[in-house]
């Protein structure tokens, strides 16, 4: 059940525009603001490009491109919105000032959710008069396709606001994950960082090329991870005894592997190795082409993985 019908987008760059496309496809009214001159053209162009993919995934009743509105003043954009998705620059001071402004321009029961990748909410909620309704709603790029949103609060956030954000993201078909406490990098990026640390170590020390690493993931665990996480995967790795047996027989080996993991530095030589490796792996494809390939494949995967009720 959708209780929110109008969303305010504050900061409409890569992430804000993609959120705008998603909320429109969910049949909501979207009201945007960004301080950059001419931003409306960029938002419209991203939304128009995303629309065919969103149509293929299935638009909600009433979804329409003309329900997007772009405003020159933040106060105007936030008139009557039921939820705010903030996607301004990743800077605590800018976000704190922005939150105070959004707080002034919206009714106190409206949840204000930040797309912040790594800043804890506690670092940017304190200037608002009603900091209790400021939460994290961290998406993955591009939010119009990626289902996961990490939701959590800061020291001053009230539980009702996190509950309401969880309900809202669920009501628009996202997969929200509630963070139990603030932690740098939230959950998903910590997991990615753990894997990427070892990926960089293996390339830096010459055990593998950049392309070897990418193939190892996409043709290996990455395929399963699209629908079964690492714990459940190991549950099946333990045979009839499940995870308990797995931990008994392969737990000591996991511990030995952890001890052997690398601790690389992103110095100039390592960075150059990665850049050259990507150059070879891309085989002349531009970033635009690669992003198109990514989105087209993501779309196919999302359709395969869609639950019958959706
Ligand atoms: N790019 C990603 O992969 C990604 C993924 C998840 C979350 N995020 C988070 O989303 C947020 C936005 O990132 P992005 O990649 O869209 O950046 P971006 O640079 O593409 O967009 C930021 C937008 O904020 C606008 N802006 C500048 N000053 C502002 C202000 N004072 N108030 C409001 N808006 C202002 C800019 O004009 C720009 O359009 C960041 O917090 C980032 O950490 C990014």
Write up what this structure looks like.
With 310 residues, this protein is an alpha/beta fold. The chain has an 8-stranded mixed beta sheet, with helices on both faces. It folds into 2 domains: 6-178, 3-Layer(aba) Sandwich (Rossmann fold); 188-305, N-(1-d-carboxylethyl)-l-norvaline Dehydrogenase, domain 2, CATH 1.10.1040. 50% of the residues lie in helices and 12% in strands. The radius of gyration is 21 Å and the shape is globular. The protein contains 12 helices and 8 strands. Nicotinamide-adenine-dinucleotide is lined by residues 10-16, 34-36, 39, 87-90, 94, 98, 115-117, 138-139, 141.
Short descriptors:
about 300 residues; alpha/beta; eight-stranded mixed β-sheet; 8 strands; about 50% helix; globular; binds nicotinamide-adenine-dinucleotide
């Amino acid at each position: 059940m959708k209780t929110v019908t109008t969303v305010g987008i504050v900061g409409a760059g890569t992430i804000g525009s993609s959120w705008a496309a998603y909320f429109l496809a969910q049949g909501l009214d979207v009201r945007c603001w960004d301080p950059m001159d001419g931003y409306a053209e960029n938002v419209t162009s991203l939304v128009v490009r995303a629309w065919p993919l969103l149509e293929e995934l299935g638009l909600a009743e009433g979804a329409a491109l003309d329900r997007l509105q772009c405003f020159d003043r933040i106060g105007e954009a936030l008139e009557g919105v039921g939820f705010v998705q903030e996607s301004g620059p990743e800077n605590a001071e800018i976000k704190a000032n922005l939150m105070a402004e959004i707080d002034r321009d919206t009714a106190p029961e409206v949840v204000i959710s930040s797309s912040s990748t790594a800043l804890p909410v506690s670092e940017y909620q304190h200037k608002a008069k009603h900091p209790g309704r400021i939460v994290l709603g961290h998406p993955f790029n591009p939010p119009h396709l990626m289902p996961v949103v990490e939701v959590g609060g800061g020291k001053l956030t009230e539980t009702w606001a996190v509950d309401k954000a969880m309900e809202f993201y669920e009501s628009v078909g996202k997969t929200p994950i509630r963070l139990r406490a603030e932690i740098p990098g939230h959950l998903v990026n910590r997991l990615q960082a753990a894997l990427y640390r070892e990926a960089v170590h293996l390339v830096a020390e010459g055990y593998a090329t950049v392309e070897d690493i990418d193939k190892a993931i996409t043709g290996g665990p990455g395929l399963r991870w699209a629908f079964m996480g690492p714990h459940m995967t190991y549950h099946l790795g333990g045979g009839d005894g499940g995870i308990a047996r797995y931990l008994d027989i392969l737990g000591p080996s996991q511990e030995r592997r952890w001890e052997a993991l690398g601790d690389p530095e992103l110095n100039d030589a390592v960075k150059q190795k990665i850049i050259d490796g990507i150059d070879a792996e891309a085989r002349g494809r531009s970033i635009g082409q690669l992003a198109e390939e990514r989105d087209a494949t993501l779309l196919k995967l999302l359709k395969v993985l869609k639950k019958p009720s959706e």
